[in-house]
Here is the input.
Amino acid sequence: MSWKPSGEESMRRKRHEPIPPESLDEPFGPPPEEYLYRCPVCSEEMLVNEAIIDVAIGAAKFRGEYQGRMPTIGCPGCNGETMEYVDQES
Ligand SMILES: [Zn+2]
Here is the structure.
């Protein structure tokens, strides 16, 4: 048995380090609040994270369009700000 260290080969090989997912650093918190939005134009429905709604409210306030209710969200189907909040209280 003749074992040769293949140092040259491993030197040529690029180091591939896996990137640790940053989300693992955060402890499990409460699930984010999501709101159902629906587009009256193309009937697209989706759950919108409250963080996104906060941003939309901020943008509406900035434009002076905020009316104190749920803002409209951009629709991925129409590419317009047509998504409206669906009140699910029943
Ligand atoms: Zn739409």
In short: The radius of gyration is 25 Å. The beta strands are 34-38, 45-49, 84-85. The chain has a mean pLDDT of 82. The longest strand covers residues 34-38.
